[in-house]
Design a protein that fits this description.
By secondary structure, the protein is mainly α. The chain is built from twelve helices and four strands; from the N terminus they run ββαααββααααααααα. The protein is flat and about 75 Å long.
Length: about 270
């Protein structure tokens, strides 16, 4: 029991307690406010270090132009140092806000996932609660790993795209479109790396089993390549291969985790009988 300043006594809420609709809405509002505050704080931090963040985002393009020489980057290069351009007086301001928002969302993913879990935990059974934290940690880690891979392969992707533009084409990229491409690449790779988490979840709830995944590996290869081609923003083969390859590996990792979970479940049932 908890005593409030007004003198009223309110019982402690346990995970098994039944919440009313009003309590659900109040809880949801609290979680949304906390998520929004985390995004705002993250955005403010990104704004404070905006120049460093922009330099970090453009580093793959800079390294490409330095490595291939100023002529490769065309109008964007002054000597060997590439530059991005704006074509609208408001573009610089809007790009700054866009980078701050994207960065705030990125750094708030752990907080958002935690708030989602805290909201749904009262409705989970004891067995499901046991898997909640590993699922959140693995989802955040895989998203970060996918985003890192997208950033590391961006230089090669840009080299391919610029090369295929043609020799008579002078390159001059808008800063807003460049930032949008980088953001979409990071988001696409991060979402693609959630694929094994979904497969493991479907196995744990009994919709799929690891034997089905292993038997369908040929269809999985085709499906993953098609999915990677659809969600890759740049559409270049380098990014497609960089996304499809790890997704294929993670597919079999998910099947392996399913086999381990299946054997443990059978061993537990055998010991119980």
């Amino acid at each position: 029991m908890r005593t409030f300043r007004s003198g009223r006594v309110k019982p402690e809420r346990t995970p098994d307690a039944v919440m009313s609709l009003t309590e659900h809405l109040a809880e949801l509002r609290t979680r949304i406010i906390r998520c929004a505050l985390s995004v705002i704080i993250g955005s403010i931090v990104i704004l404070a270090f905006y120049d460093w963040v922009l330099e970090f985002l453009t580093s793959p393009y800079t390294q490409l132009c330095i490595g291939r020489g100023g002529d490769f980057c065309g109008l964007a290069a002054e000597g060997d140092s590439p530059r991005l351009a704006i074509t609208d007086p408001l573009e610089g301001f809007s790009t700054r806000l866009r980078i701050a928002t994207y960065g705030g969302l990125l750094f708030s993913i752990p907080v958002i996932m935690w708030q989602i879990w805290r909201f749904i935990v009262p409705a989970l059974q004891a067995k499901e609660k046991k898997y909640a934290v590993p699922f959140i940690v693995s989802s955040v880690a895989l998203f970060a790993l996918g985003g890192l891979l997208a950033y590391l392969t961006l230089e090669k992707a840009l080299e391919f795209l610029i090369s295929w533009a043609g020799q008579d084409v002078a390159n001059l990229f808008q800063v807003s479109k460049y930032v949008r491409l980088v953001s979409l690449m990071v988001f696409a790779f991060g979402v693609g790396f959630q694929f094994p988490v979904l497969l493991v979840f479907l196995q744990l709830v009994g919709i799929l089993n690891p034997q089905q995944l292993l038997r369908s590996w040929r269809y999985a290869i085709v499906g993953i390549v098609v999915l990677a081609a659809v969600i890759t923003p740049s559409g270049d083969p380098i990014s497609l291969a960089a996304l499809a390859g790890p997704m294929l590996v993670l597919y079999f990792v998910a099947a392996g985790i399913g086999l381990i979970a299946q054997r443990r479940s059978r061993a537990a049932e055998a010991s119980a009988t």
